[in-house]
Amino acid sequence: MTATRYLHSRADVQKRMLGIKAVIFDWDGVFNDGFKDMDGGSPFSEVGSMGVNLLRFALWLKNGELPISAIITGQHNPFAEKFAQREKLHGVYMGFTNKPEAFNAFLGEHDLQPEEVAFVFDDVLDLPVAAVCGVRVMIGSPATAWLVEQVIARGGTDVVTANGGGENGLREATDLLIDALGNGTEVLNDRVGSTERYQSYLSARQKLIPQIVRNPR
């Protein structure tokens, strides 16, 4: 098995994470292996779902407020919408093959700078957004080995996961970002104990009403 590839030192990733206030995820190839059902949907793993929740909690502990969280996907995907509704993300942007269009709308909506965003992605359409984000984690896979090397050469990622989207690479990505934040022990202790701090985070999270943005084009 290949190892997680850090293109900079872990200390550099840790330093970058200090400024992160938001996290964005691509969908296809990140939450899953990218294959579609007959209706154009692609599902998610509960392993990845837990990782997303723990990362959001870790950022809440660090910043004292909910991190702004969203999905940007090139397709109209009912699973992505269901996930955003269930997990109470701030939003999901669907049908945006020109992803900077959705990304810029996201930044403006939440008064964010690109360097304040961590981005988990896997493929070509994500690269313009990855180029400007503060922390970039690319989901690796044997099938995209050539692309991964091209992205590395372009300086378009900070970390490449060892596992693909269909092998819970998303969970690898969220766990390494929690590790970079340096509060993983707190995160686990509070989540396992369902402490008052975790309940406060969960209460704030559950009050969110996700913004569902569908590109009509």
Describe what you observe in this structure.
With 217 residues, the chain is an alpha/beta fold. The chain is built from nine helices and eight strands. The protein has helices at residues 10-17, 46-63, 78-87, 99-110, 127-130, 145-153, 169-181, 184-193, 196-206, and strands at residues 5-6, 22-25, 68-73, 91-94, 117-121, 135-138, 159-160, 211-214. The longest helix has 18 residues, at 46-63. The radius of gyration is 16 Å and the shape is globular. The termini are far apart. The mean pLDDT is 95.
CATH class category? Alpha Beta
List how many beta strands DSSP finds.
8
Question: Radius of gyration, Cα only, in angstroms?
Answer: 16 Å
Order of helices and strands: EHEHEHEHEHEHEHHHE
CATH topology: Rossmann fold
Which ranges are low-confidence, i.e. pLDDT below 50, for 5 or more consecutive residues? none
Largest sheet: 8 strands, mixed
Q: How confident overall, as mean pLDDT?
A: 95
Instruction: Please report which band the strand proportion falls in: under 5%, 5-15%, 15-25%, 25-35%, 35-45% or over 45%.
Output: 5-15%
Cα(first) to Cα(last) distance is 41 Å
- Do you know the CATH architecture? 3-Layer(aba) Sandwich
- Count of individual helical segments: 9
Helix content: 40-55%
Q: What is the 3D form?
A: globular
* CATH superfamily grouping: HAD superfamily/HAD-like
Structural class comes to: alpha/beta
Question: What order do the strands of the largest sheet run in, or round the barrel if closed?
Answer: 1-7-6-5-2-3-4-8
